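Proteins fold reproducibly. Next comes a concrete instance:

***
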Amino acid sequence: MDAVDWQLALGRAPGLTAQLLRTTLARLDAAHGAGCALAELLGRRSGALPTLGWPAATCAALQALDSRRIANDRRWVEREQIVLVDAAAQRYPPLLAQIPAAPPLLYVKGDATLLASPQLAMVGSRHPTQPGRRTAYEFAAHLASAGVTVSSGLALGIDAASHEGALHVAGRTLAVLGTSLDTVYPPQHRALAARIASQGALISQFPPGTPPLKANFPRRNRILSGLCAGTLVVEAAQCSGALITARLAARIGRQVFAIPGSIHNPLSRGCHALIREGAKIIESPQELLDELGFHLPKQSVMFELRSAGGSGTRAATLDKGCEILLDALGYAPASLDSLVVQTGLPSQSVASMLLILELEGAVGVHAGGRYMRLQAPAADSATRARSELLTAAVRPLMSDDG
């Protein structure tokens, strides 16, 4: 067996940690005065592993290797161009190496150099509100434009929006999987995973053939928090898995950030709980860059966030009625009927103005047919043109009701 075969054997050996592997190699180096290669340790010296404090299950697995399985793993690695990064290698991510129970082997598809790049984990609900999804997308785009690697877990909702935001600005993004790299989960993210692999990297600690077992996702969260300098939670319920990632990050001394939200939004409660526990409130991507010591060169800005009130272009296109409606709407979901009561405007006028504001990107439709004000970028020229046409079409209706 050569070094690659031993790496693959390491990936299937239970109970071993990166810290134990590195400590063992360091002890052997000190004792013998020469570098001890991984293949030498696991091959010629494997009989001595129990005396070095290695778990019995690990030693048994390495002393009774399934050569056929190792050969199959190797064919997959070569066919899919998987990079194997063991804990003894110099390119093993330094931040990850600091945490307890870090895996001895990482499977990487894509750019393995991103493992050591400045990273921020972005996590949140699998079923976010539209404003939450948009916030994650915009934050990720801004951070990726600054050269930060946006890392997440490829899950539905906030994870996917974070990856998409980074990809949109040709930035770097890294996905940590709770399955092996040959089993993308959820399956509807296969195309997204392929894009991430081509522009960033997919990471897993699990050998090929590992399905989406429930017990593996907390282990995925531990790797995600360990890779990154900090973790940002965008939206999360009180029992969200995103809180596991954030609390794991806090436990290993990494910074935790949370975006506050409306007290009426159940997906704000997890963020508010983290803030009570000591997470830092974040309202803009630049705050994150400052907190983490990442600085944004002016020449690298590829994506600009607009203020909550929108751009001057949008403000100039909105009439007094739309401004009144926006003021009444706020940032919590509201029904059409409640907006009619708050504004005193006719229901048909309110419905028409909501159409205009939705096309402008100022309003989003929330679950149950309710509406919420968005912190959105200004509409482009084509969208503004369509908005003007729609405004012209619906304004007579608004006047008839008024």
Q: What stands out?
A: The chain has three domains: 3-79, 117-300, 312-401. The longest helix spans residues 381-401. The longest strand covers residues 105-110. Residues 16 and 58 are 6 Å apart (CA to CA).
